[in-house]
Specification:
The protein has 70 residues and is mainly α. It has one domain. It is built from two helices and no strands. It starts with a helix and ends with a helix. The relative contact order is 0.22. Keywords: Coiled coil.
Length: 70
Amino acid sequence: MECDELIRLRSEAQQLRKELEDRRAKARERKSLERPDRPNAFDFDGFLKRKIHRAALAIEQHVAKHQCQD
């Protein structure tokens, strides 16, 4: 059975993935418009990937500690 904390952690990870996808889409759009005066959204890729990785680790640790799964 999933606990509230696990649901929250998974929701947070999904939001981070969506943010990464949105930033990539904006970067592609910006690149197609050839706007070199603005920073590229791909600059945030590494940051968001690390946040997603940390969120996945937190989920794994929580499941291991509390034995709550779907």
